Amino acid sequence: MDDERAFVVFLKVHLFFPESGSLKAKRAELNSVKAHLRDRHRASVAEVGHQDAWQRSTLAVAITGGSPGRCEEAADNVGRYLDARFPQGARVERQLASWADLESLG
Q1: CA distance 17 to 26
Q2: Distances 11 to 37, 70, 82, 92 between C-alpha atoms, Å
Q3: Which of the four, 76, 77, 80, 82, has the lowest number of CB atoms within 10 Å?
Q4: What is the pTM of this model?
Q5: Helix, strand or coil for residue 50?
Q6: Mind listing the pLDDT tens digit for each residue in 29-72?
Q7: What is the mean pLDDT of residues 11-29?
């Protein structure tokens, strides 16, 4: 991908698992969500918060694309998937950056 046309959308995803009664139950459901994001949305995914909480999790998700529009469309698709999977609510924060934006960070 040409550096001038490389973009990434970063998502911080806050999830709530009301039915989960143990870390094992939460991790089983969370692993399914992470696999779906990786396989269907071609996203990089990591749990970055609440690893030891039974009913909460925070994920960092990154999706790359050749244009801001493609990245935003991919982020919208992830949001729709999460809304359908978590009817009680999933909160998603997003930030779009270009390769030039990332290079300026040092």
Answers
A1: 7
A2: 12, 14, 12, 6
A3: 80
A4: 0.88
A5: coil
A6: 999 999 999 999 999 999 999 989 999 999 999 999 999 999 99
A7: 93
CB atoms within 10 A of CB 7: 22
Polymer length of the chain:
106
Tokens read off for 83: 């809304």
N- to C-terminal Cα distance for the chain? 21
8 phi, psi to nearest 5 deg: -140, 140
| Cross-strand partners of 53 | none
Task: Say what angle helices 23-41 and 68-85 make with each other, to 10 degrees.
Answer: 150
C-beta of residue 16 within 8 angstroms of C-beta of residue 56: yes
Contact 75, 9 (CB under 8 A): yes
Residues 6+ apart with CB under 8 A from 78: 11, 13, 37, 41, 43, 61, 63, 92
